[in-house]
Design brief:
Strand order of the largest sheet: 5-8-7-6-9
Number of helices: 6
Largest sheet: 5 strands, mixed, barrel
CATH superfamily: Nucleoside phosphorylase domain
Strand content: 15-25%
Distance between the termini: 39 Å
CATH architecture: 3-Layer(aba) Sandwich
Bound molecules: hypoxanthine
Length: 277
């Protein structure tokens, strides 16, 4: 039988615990095109994923592939600069491992960011959406297989997958920062091909406001590990699937991710000091 997730987590943690320093308080996952937020971390140490025993190494464009540990807006943070995606060929369990490691490093909150297409016609590229909930359309879960009871429950609750109290703090932080935000449902898909217009209309009709190729796997792992989540989407392109739907380009996605990155940084400046200890 393959190595248990717990054994793999222990191995990864042992390989870096000496370098990671004092416990981190907040874990932050940076989505596609949002990696520049790592530049705001002071007294930073970087640990390339390749130096973490058993850790998957990100290959997605716009992703660096390192943990950045340091201080951000008064809190000790550990950032994943470079996220892992199912479309790269990683298994759902590979993608869950970093979440467990971030918790093991002391994190009490996981802040996930991503780039997403706007299914909701009221959204414009450059908008920021606070995630209220998700639809997992990847068809997979990182919890399939033997459960590691030392990590979490066999059947974790998902009714508060995006912690409502933390969401409220994020809404208030955005207000203080003067950043107008949307609030909505993130639809997670496998990728890497973008959705057809019919699929986008279907996701919209199903209640989705945004669609992207990440996040839901990590959030399931986070619920498993009882690590509360805040989710923020950068709306990088219009994805309504309507008659005026334009072809999507990666250049447009990155250009709008940069706009959103500045807004997200302004929100985090207000949010991080307000997060529970
Ligand atoms: N679909 C899926 N993933 C995405 C999109 C999209 O339109 N935009 C950015 N990531």
């Amino acid at each position: 039988m393959s190595e248990s997730q717990l054994a793999r987590l222990n191995r990864a943690h042992s390989s870096i615990r000496g370098r990671a320093g004092a416990p981190c308080e907040v874990a932050i996952m940076l989505g596609s095109g949002l990696g520049q937020l790592a530049d705001a971390v002071s007294d930073a140490i970087a640990i390339p994923y390749a130096e973490i025993d058993g850790f998957p190494v990100s290959t997605a464009p716009g992703h660096k592939g390192q943990l950045v540990i340091g201080e951000l807006f008064g809190r000790r943070v550990v950032m994943m600069q470079g996220r892992l995606h199912l479309y790269e060929g990683w298994t759902p369990r590979d993608i869950a491992l970093p979440v467990y490691l971030l918790k093991r490093l002391g994190s009490r909150t996981l802040l996930v960011t991503n780039a997403a297409g706007g299914l909701n016609a009221a959204y414009a590229p450059g908008d920021v959406m606070l995630i209220e909930d998700h639809l997992n359309f990847t068809g997979v879960s990182p919890l399939v297989g033997p459960n590691d009871d030392a990590i979490g429950l066999r059947f974790p609750d998902m009714s508060r997958a995006y912690d409502p109290d933390l969401l409220k703090l994020a809404v208030e932080a955005a207000e203080r920062a003067g950043v107008t935000v949307q609030r909505g449902i993130y639809t997670g898909v496998l990728g890497p091909a973008l959705e057809t217009s019919a699929e986008r209309r279907f996701f919209r009709a199903s209640g989705g406001d945004a669609v992207g190729m990440s996040t839901v796997t990590e959030v399931v792992a986070s619920a498993h590990a009882a690590l509360p989540v805040i989710g923020i989407s950068a709306i990088t392109n219009a994805a309504t699937g309507g008659p005026d739907q334009q072809p999507d380009t990666i250049e447009e996605v990155f250009a709008n991710a940069a706009v959103c990155g500045r807004k997200i940084e302004a929100i985090l400046r207000e949010l991080l000091p307000a997060l529970p200890a």
